[in-house]
Design a protein that fits this description.
Elements lengths: L2 H33 L2 H21 L13 H32 L4 E2 L2 E2 L1 H29 L3 H22 L5 H27 L7 H10 L2 H27 L2 H40 L3 H34 L4 H23 L2 H4 L3 H25 L3 H27 L4
Helix pairs in contact: 1-5, 1-9, 2-3, 2-4, 2-6, 3-4, 3-7, 4-6, 5-6, 8-9, 8-13, 9-10, 9-11, 10-11, 11-14, 13-14
Length: 420
Protein backbone atom coordinates (compact mmCIF):
# COMPACT_ATOMS: atom_id res chain seq x y z
CA UNK A 1 0.00 0.00 0.00
CA UNK A 2 1.46 3.39 -1.01
CA UNK A 3 2.12 6.21 1.43
CA UNK A 4 -0.54 8.37 -0.26
CA UNK A 5 -3.12 5.57 -0.05
CA UNK A 6 -2.46 5.05 3.67
CA UNK A 7 -2.65 8.79 4.29
CA UNK A 8 -5.94 9.10 2.41
CA UNK A 9 -7.49 6.17 4.29
CA UNK A 10 -6.52 7.53 7.71
CA UNK A 11 -7.64 11.07 6.85
CA UNK A 12 -11.00 9.90 5.50
CA UNK A 13 -11.66 7.93 8.69
CA UNK A 14 -10.92 10.97 10.85
CA UNK A 15 -12.66 13.38 8.50
CA UNK A 16 -15.90 11.39 8.37
CA UNK A 17 -16.24 11.33 12.16
CA UNK A 18 -15.26 14.97 12.59
CA UNK A 19 -17.58 16.10 9.79
CA UNK A 20 -20.52 14.15 11.24
CA UNK A 21 -19.90 15.65 14.67
CA UNK A 22 -19.85 19.16 13.16
CA UNK A 23 -23.02 18.38 11.19
CA UNK A 24 -24.80 17.33 14.39
CA UNK A 25 -23.81 20.58 16.09
CA UNK A 26 -24.89 22.60 13.05
CA UNK A 27 -28.25 20.81 12.77
CA UNK A 28 -28.94 21.33 16.48
CA UNK A 29 -28.39 25.10 16.32
CA UNK A 30 -31.95 25.98 15.16
CA UNK A 31 -33.43 23.83 17.94
CA UNK A 32 -31.19 25.23 20.67
CA UNK A 33 -31.86 28.79 19.52
CA UNK A 34 -35.58 28.19 20.13
CA UNK A 35 -35.30 26.64 23.59
CA UNK A 36 -32.67 29.00 25.04
CA UNK A 37 -32.71 32.78 25.26
CA UNK A 38 -30.02 34.79 23.43
CA UNK A 39 -28.72 35.99 26.81
CA UNK A 40 -27.92 32.41 27.81
CA UNK A 41 -25.85 31.93 24.65
CA UNK A 42 -24.04 35.21 25.33
CA UNK A 43 -23.21 34.19 28.90
CA UNK A 44 -22.10 30.76 27.71
CA UNK A 45 -19.88 32.30 25.01
CA UNK A 46 -18.18 34.64 27.50
CA UNK A 47 -17.58 31.82 29.98
CA UNK A 48 -16.33 29.48 27.25
CA UNK A 49 -13.89 32.11 26.00
CA UNK A 50 -12.33 32.48 29.44
CA UNK A 51 -12.23 28.72 30.01
CA UNK A 52 -10.62 28.11 26.62
CA UNK A 53 -7.70 30.32 27.66
CA UNK A 54 -7.31 28.37 30.92
CA UNK A 55 -7.52 25.08 29.01
CA UNK A 56 -4.61 26.16 26.78
CA UNK A 57 -2.51 26.40 29.95
CA UNK A 58 -4.04 23.40 31.69
CA UNK A 59 -1.74 20.66 30.37
CA UNK A 60 1.46 22.68 30.18
CA UNK A 61 1.37 21.64 26.47
CA UNK A 62 3.05 18.37 27.48
CA UNK A 63 0.48 16.45 25.45
CA UNK A 64 2.18 17.73 22.28
CA UNK A 65 5.20 15.64 23.20
CA UNK A 66 3.22 12.38 23.44
CA UNK A 67 3.84 11.71 19.74
CA UNK A 68 7.62 12.13 19.96
CA UNK A 69 9.16 9.27 22.03
CA UNK A 70 9.84 5.97 20.29
CA UNK A 71 8.70 3.90 23.28
CA UNK A 72 5.17 3.86 24.69
CA UNK A 73 6.45 3.96 28.27
CA UNK A 74 7.91 7.44 27.89
CA UNK A 75 4.95 8.62 25.83
CA UNK A 76 2.50 7.41 28.48
CA UNK A 77 4.55 9.20 31.13
CA UNK A 78 3.84 12.43 29.23
CA UNK A 79 0.13 11.55 29.23
CA UNK A 80 0.20 11.18 33.01
CA UNK A 81 2.31 14.34 33.37
CA UNK A 82 -0.06 16.44 31.23
CA UNK A 83 -3.08 15.05 33.06
CA UNK A 84 -1.50 15.75 36.45
CA UNK A 85 -0.76 19.34 35.46
CA UNK A 86 -4.40 19.67 34.36
CA UNK A 87 -5.61 18.56 37.80
CA UNK A 88 -3.38 21.12 39.50
CA UNK A 89 -4.25 23.98 37.12
CA UNK A 90 -8.03 23.38 37.32
CA UNK A 91 -7.86 23.22 41.15
CA UNK A 92 -5.86 26.45 41.41
CA UNK A 93 -8.15 28.17 38.90
CA UNK A 94 -11.23 27.05 40.84
CA UNK A 95 -9.81 28.36 44.15
CA UNK A 96 -8.88 31.64 42.48
CA UNK A 97 -12.37 31.99 40.99
CA UNK A 98 -14.02 31.32 44.36
CA UNK A 99 -11.80 33.92 46.02
CA UNK A 100 -12.59 36.43 43.27
CA UNK A 101 -16.32 35.80 43.64
CA UNK A 102 -16.13 36.21 47.39
CA UNK A 103 -14.03 39.41 47.45
CA UNK A 104 -14.20 41.27 44.13
CA UNK A 105 -16.95 40.05 41.83
CA UNK A 106 -20.14 42.07 41.29
CA UNK A 107 -23.42 40.87 42.76
CA UNK A 108 -24.51 39.61 39.35
CA UNK A 109 -21.98 37.65 37.30
CA UNK A 110 -22.89 36.11 33.94
CA UNK A 111 -26.53 36.67 34.82
CA UNK A 112 -26.24 34.70 38.08
CA UNK A 113 -26.78 36.09 41.56
CA UNK A 114 -26.22 34.87 45.09
CA UNK A 115 -25.14 31.27 45.58
CA UNK A 116 -25.80 30.47 41.89
CA UNK A 117 -22.57 32.29 41.04
CA UNK A 118 -20.57 29.87 43.18
CA UNK A 119 -22.14 26.80 41.54
CA UNK A 120 -20.64 27.94 38.25
CA UNK A 121 -17.13 27.41 39.63
CA UNK A 122 -17.12 23.59 40.07
CA UNK A 123 -18.85 23.17 36.70
CA UNK A 124 -16.33 25.44 35.01
CA UNK A 125 -13.42 23.66 36.72
CA UNK A 126 -14.84 20.29 35.62
CA UNK A 127 -15.10 21.60 32.05
CA UNK A 128 -11.43 22.67 32.10
CA UNK A 129 -10.21 19.41 33.66
CA UNK A 130 -12.27 17.12 31.42
CA UNK A 131 -11.43 19.11 28.29
CA UNK A 132 -7.73 18.92 29.11
CA UNK A 133 -7.83 15.15 29.68
CA UNK A 134 -9.91 14.76 26.51
CA UNK A 135 -7.21 16.56 24.50
CA UNK A 136 -4.47 14.45 26.07
CA UNK A 137 -6.21 11.13 25.34
CA UNK A 138 -6.97 12.18 21.77
CA UNK A 139 -3.22 12.62 21.23
CA UNK A 140 -2.55 9.18 22.78
CA UNK A 141 -5.16 7.56 20.52
CA UNK A 142 -3.62 9.42 17.59
CA UNK A 143 -0.21 8.01 18.54
CA UNK A 144 -1.70 4.50 18.52
CA UNK A 145 -3.45 5.32 15.21
CA UNK A 146 -6.87 4.56 16.63
CA UNK A 147 -8.62 6.81 14.11
CA UNK A 148 -11.96 4.98 14.26
CA UNK A 149 -12.01 5.37 18.04
CA UNK A 150 -11.28 9.10 17.68
CA UNK A 151 -14.16 9.51 15.21
CA UNK A 152 -16.57 7.58 17.45
CA UNK A 153 -15.62 9.66 20.48
CA UNK A 154 -16.17 12.93 18.63
CA UNK A 155 -19.55 11.86 17.31
CA UNK A 156 -20.64 10.66 20.78
CA UNK A 157 -19.47 13.92 22.32
CA UNK A 158 -21.64 15.94 19.92
CA UNK A 159 -24.72 13.70 20.31
CA UNK A 160 -24.63 13.59 24.12
CA UNK A 161 -23.94 17.31 24.50
CA UNK A 162 -26.74 18.39 22.17
CA UNK A 163 -29.27 15.88 23.54
CA UNK A 164 -28.52 16.90 27.12
CA UNK A 165 -28.70 20.62 26.39
CA UNK A 166 -32.08 20.22 24.68
CA UNK A 167 -33.39 18.00 27.50
CA UNK A 168 -32.24 20.39 30.22
CA UNK A 169 -33.76 23.43 28.49
CA UNK A 170 -37.18 22.80 30.06
CA UNK A 171 -35.91 21.98 33.57
CA UNK A 172 -32.63 23.78 34.25
CA UNK A 173 -32.46 26.15 31.30
CA UNK A 174 -30.23 29.20 30.87
CA UNK A 175 -26.47 29.15 31.27
CA UNK A 176 -26.53 26.12 33.57
CA UNK A 177 -28.42 24.02 31.01
CA UNK A 178 -25.86 24.76 28.30
CA UNK A 179 -22.93 24.27 30.67
CA UNK A 180 -24.19 20.99 32.15
CA UNK A 181 -24.82 19.62 28.67
CA UNK A 182 -21.28 20.53 27.61
CA UNK A 183 -19.69 18.93 30.69
CA UNK A 184 -21.72 15.73 30.28
CA UNK A 185 -20.84 15.49 26.58
CA UNK A 186 -17.12 15.79 27.37
CA UNK A 187 -17.43 13.31 30.26
CA UNK A 188 -19.06 10.60 28.11
CA UNK A 189 -16.50 11.17 25.36
CA UNK A 190 -13.73 10.87 27.95
CA UNK A 191 -15.22 7.62 29.23
CA UNK A 192 -15.17 6.17 25.72
CA UNK A 193 -11.61 7.35 25.24
CA UNK A 194 -10.51 5.74 28.50
CA UNK A 195 -12.24 2.47 27.54
CA UNK A 196 -10.50 2.47 24.17
CA UNK A 197 -7.13 3.24 25.73
CA UNK A 198 -7.46 0.43 28.30
CA UNK A 199 -8.57 -2.01 25.62
CA UNK A 200 -5.54 -1.05 23.56
CA UNK A 201 -3.20 -1.85 26.42
CA UNK A 202 -1.25 0.51 28.64
CA UNK A 203 2.38 0.64 29.75
CA UNK A 204 3.17 0.31 33.44
CA UNK A 205 2.33 3.24 35.67
CA UNK A 206 5.29 5.63 35.30
CA UNK A 207 7.57 6.07 38.29
CA UNK A 208 8.19 9.49 39.78
CA UNK A 209 11.75 9.47 38.43
CA UNK A 210 10.50 8.93 34.87
CA UNK A 211 7.88 11.69 35.21
CA UNK A 212 10.56 14.06 36.45
CA UNK A 213 12.91 13.12 33.61
CA UNK A 214 10.21 13.62 30.96
CA UNK A 215 9.21 16.98 32.48
CA UNK A 216 12.81 18.18 32.22
CA UNK A 217 13.32 16.71 28.75
CA UNK A 218 10.22 18.48 27.40
CA UNK A 219 10.45 21.69 29.44
CA UNK A 220 10.56 23.58 26.13
CA UNK A 221 6.86 22.84 25.58
CA UNK A 222 5.38 24.88 28.46
CA UNK A 223 8.20 27.41 28.15
CA UNK A 224 7.78 28.12 24.43
CA UNK A 225 4.55 26.58 23.11
CA UNK A 226 2.19 28.29 25.57
CA UNK A 227 3.34 31.86 24.73
CA UNK A 228 3.56 30.87 21.05
CA UNK A 229 -0.08 29.73 21.09
CA UNK A 230 -1.16 32.94 22.82
CA UNK A 231 0.71 35.03 20.22
CA UNK A 232 -0.83 32.88 17.49
CA UNK A 233 -4.27 33.78 18.81
CA UNK A 234 -3.39 37.48 18.59
CA UNK A 235 -2.02 37.03 15.07
CA UNK A 236 -5.22 35.31 13.95
CA UNK A 237 -7.38 38.15 15.27
CA UNK A 238 -5.16 41.04 14.15
CA UNK A 239 -7.07 41.82 10.92
CA UNK A 240 -10.33 41.99 12.91
CA UNK A 241 -8.73 44.40 15.37
CA UNK A 242 -7.27 46.56 12.59
CA UNK A 243 -10.48 46.72 10.54
CA UNK A 244 -12.47 47.62 13.65
CA UNK A 245 -10.07 50.43 14.56
CA UNK A 246 -9.67 51.80 11.03
CA UNK A 247 -13.08 51.24 9.44
CA UNK A 248 -16.54 50.26 10.75
CA UNK A 249 -18.33 47.50 12.63
CA UNK A 250 -20.05 46.55 9.38
CA UNK A 251 -16.67 46.02 7.76
CA UNK A 252 -15.64 43.74 10.62
CA UNK A 253 -18.89 41.81 10.23
CA UNK A 254 -18.32 41.29 6.50
CA UNK A 255 -14.73 40.15 7.04
CA UNK A 256 -15.73 37.86 9.93
CA UNK A 257 -18.33 36.13 7.76
CA UNK A 258 -15.78 35.64 4.99
CA UNK A 259 -13.26 34.30 7.50
CA UNK A 260 -15.67 31.85 9.13
CA UNK A 261 -17.07 30.66 5.81
CA UNK A 262 -13.66 29.96 4.31
CA UNK A 263 -11.91 28.59 7.39
CA UNK A 264 -14.59 26.21 8.70
CA UNK A 265 -14.48 23.61 5.89
CA UNK A 266 -10.76 24.11 5.25
CA UNK A 267 -9.83 23.61 8.91
CA UNK A 268 -11.99 20.49 9.04
CA UNK A 269 -9.81 18.89 6.36
CA UNK A 270 -6.53 20.45 7.48
CA UNK A 271 -6.93 19.35 11.11
CA UNK A 272 -7.74 15.78 10.09
CA UNK A 273 -4.72 15.63 7.79
CA UNK A 274 -2.62 17.23 10.51
CA UNK A 275 -3.51 14.59 13.07
CA UNK A 276 -2.40 11.82 10.71
CA UNK A 277 0.75 13.70 9.64
CA UNK A 278 1.85 14.34 13.23
CA UNK A 279 1.72 10.65 14.09
CA UNK A 280 3.32 9.29 10.95
CA UNK A 281 5.97 12.01 10.63
CA UNK A 282 7.01 11.72 14.28
CA UNK A 283 7.30 7.95 13.95
CA UNK A 284 9.29 8.10 10.72
CA UNK A 285 11.58 10.86 12.00
CA UNK A 286 12.33 8.94 15.20
CA UNK A 287 13.25 5.85 13.16
CA UNK A 288 15.10 7.44 10.23
CA UNK A 289 16.06 10.98 11.24
CA UNK A 290 13.95 12.41 8.40
CA UNK A 291 10.37 12.28 7.07
CA UNK A 292 10.71 13.97 3.68
CA UNK A 293 8.43 11.51 1.86
CA UNK A 294 5.63 11.98 4.40
CA UNK A 295 6.08 15.76 4.18
CA UNK A 296 5.90 15.83 0.36
CA UNK A 297 2.85 13.56 0.22
CA UNK A 298 0.98 15.66 2.78
CA UNK A 299 1.81 18.97 1.11
CA UNK A 300 0.81 17.68 -2.33
CA UNK A 301 -2.52 16.35 -1.04
CA UNK A 302 -3.33 19.62 0.73
CA UNK A 303 -2.16 21.74 -2.21
CA UNK A 304 -4.65 20.10 -4.58
CA UNK A 305 -7.52 21.02 -2.27
CA UNK A 306 -6.10 24.51 -1.67
CA UNK A 307 -5.78 25.32 -5.37
CA UNK A 308 -9.35 24.15 -5.99
CA UNK A 309 -10.61 26.38 -3.17
CA UNK A 310 -8.71 29.41 -4.52
CA UNK A 311 -10.13 28.93 -8.01
CA UNK A 312 -13.73 28.63 -6.77
CA UNK A 313 -13.54 31.70 -4.53
CA UNK A 314 -11.65 33.89 -7.02
CA UNK A 315 -14.00 33.01 -9.89
CA UNK A 316 -17.32 33.06 -8.03
CA UNK A 317 -16.80 34.37 -4.48
CA UNK A 318 -19.15 37.39 -4.55
CA UNK A 319 -21.88 35.50 -6.41
CA UNK A 320 -21.75 32.57 -3.96
CA UNK A 321 -21.90 34.82 -0.89
CA UNK A 322 -24.83 36.77 -2.34
CA UNK A 323 -26.65 33.53 -3.22
CA UNK A 324 -26.15 31.85 0.18
CA UNK A 325 -26.29 34.79 2.59
CA UNK A 326 -28.20 37.45 0.67
CA UNK A 327 -27.28 40.34 -1.61
CA UNK A 328 -26.20 42.56 1.31
CA UNK A 329 -23.37 40.11 2.03
CA UNK A 330 -21.87 40.28 -1.48
CA UNK A 331 -18.95 42.48 -0.27
CA UNK A 332 -17.90 39.59 1.98
CA UNK A 333 -17.34 37.61 -1.20
CA UNK A 334 -15.10 40.40 -2.50
CA UNK A 335 -13.09 40.23 0.74
CA UNK A 336 -12.95 36.44 0.41
CA UNK A 337 -11.35 36.80 -3.03
CA UNK A 338 -8.48 38.72 -1.43
CA UNK A 339 -7.85 36.59 1.66
CA UNK A 340 -8.38 33.14 0.12
CA UNK A 341 -4.68 32.95 -0.85
CA UNK A 342 -3.72 33.51 2.78
CA UNK A 343 -6.17 30.90 4.06
CA UNK A 344 -4.99 28.43 1.39
CA UNK A 345 -1.41 28.84 2.58
CA UNK A 346 -2.49 28.39 6.18
CA UNK A 347 -4.40 25.26 5.10
CA UNK A 348 -1.25 23.73 3.61
CA UNK A 349 1.38 24.91 6.09
CA UNK A 350 -0.30 24.53 9.50
CA UNK A 351 -0.31 20.69 9.58
CA UNK A 352 3.32 20.28 8.45
CA UNK A 353 4.65 23.03 10.75
CA UNK A 354 4.50 20.36 13.47
CA UNK A 355 8.07 19.73 12.30
CA UNK A 356 9.08 22.51 14.69
CA UNK A 357 7.86 20.31 17.56
CA UNK A 358 9.43 17.11 16.19
CA UNK A 359 12.90 18.67 15.89
CA UNK A 360 12.49 20.67 19.12
CA UNK A 361 12.69 24.09 17.48
CA UNK A 362 10.04 25.56 19.77
CA UNK A 363 12.31 28.44 20.78
CA UNK A 364 12.68 29.43 17.11
CA UNK A 365 8.91 29.05 16.68
CA UNK A 366 8.35 31.44 19.58
CA UNK A 367 10.76 34.08 18.28
CA UNK A 368 9.31 33.88 14.76
CA UNK A 369 5.81 34.41 16.15
CA UNK A 370 7.03 37.31 18.27
CA UNK A 371 8.81 38.85 15.27
CA UNK A 372 5.72 38.65 13.07
CA UNK A 373 3.61 40.13 15.87
CA UNK A 374 6.00 43.08 16.04
CA UNK A 375 5.86 43.41 12.24
CA UNK A 376 2.07 43.44 12.33
CA UNK A 377 2.20 46.09 15.03
CA UNK A 378 4.28 48.23 12.68
CA UNK A 379 1.84 47.51 9.84
CA UNK A 380 -0.99 48.64 12.13
CA UNK A 381 0.71 51.93 12.98
CA UNK A 382 1.62 52.73 9.37
CA UNK A 383 -1.55 51.32 7.86
CA UNK A 384 -3.82 53.52 9.97
CA UNK A 385 -2.19 56.53 8.33
CA UNK A 386 -1.85 55.47 4.70
CA UNK A 387 -4.50 52.82 3.96
CA UNK A 388 -7.85 54.26 2.93
CA UNK A 389 -9.71 51.23 1.58
CA UNK A 390 -10.58 47.82 2.98
CA UNK A 391 -9.17 45.90 -0.05
CA UNK A 392 -5.83 47.67 0.34
CA UNK A 393 -5.69 46.81 4.05
CA UNK A 394 -6.59 43.18 3.41
CA UNK A 395 -4.04 42.91 0.60
CA UNK A 396 -1.32 44.18 2.94
CA UNK A 397 -2.25 41.66 5.60
CA UNK A 398 -2.29 38.87 3.00
CA UNK A 399 1.23 39.84 1.95
CA UNK A 400 2.59 39.86 5.51
CA UNK A 401 0.87 36.62 6.59
CA UNK A 402 1.78 34.89 3.34
CA UNK A 403 5.45 35.70 3.93
CA UNK A 404 5.14 34.15 7.38
CA UNK A 405 3.56 30.94 6.10
CA UNK A 406 6.07 30.61 3.23
CA UNK A 407 8.93 30.98 5.71
CA UNK A 408 7.37 28.30 7.94
CA UNK A 409 6.92 26.03 4.92
CA UNK A 410 10.57 26.41 3.90
CA UNK A 411 11.87 25.78 7.41
CA UNK A 412 9.52 22.82 7.95
CA UNK A 413 10.72 21.25 4.69
CA UNK A 414 14.32 21.73 5.82
CA UNK A 415 13.57 20.04 9.16
CA UNK A 416 11.71 17.18 7.42
CA UNK A 417 14.87 16.40 5.45
CA UNK A 418 16.81 16.07 8.71
CA UNK A 419 18.68 19.38 8.33
CA UNK A 420 19.11 21.45 11.47
Amino acid sequence: MSLLTRLRGSVLTLLSGTALAQLILFAASPVLSRVYEPAAFGQYALLSLGLSLVTVLATGKYEIGVLLPEGDEEAFALVVLAGGVAVAVSAVAALGALLWLWVVAPAAWLGQQGSARYWLVPLAAAMVLLSAWQAVLFVWLNRRRRYRAISLCRITHAVVMVATQITLAATVGGLFGLLLGTVLGIAVCLLLQATSVRRDGLPARPAAALLSRMARAHANLPMHSIPTDLIGTLLAQFPVFFLGAKFSDATVGLYSLAQRTLLAPMQLISNSVGEVFRTQAASQFAAEGQCAAQFRTTVRLLSVVAVAAVLVVVLAGPQLFALVFGESWRPAGDYARIVIVLFALKFVVSPVSFMFIIVRKTRLDFWLHLGFLALLGLVFLVGRQVLDTVPAALALFVAVYSAMYLLYLALSWRFARGLA
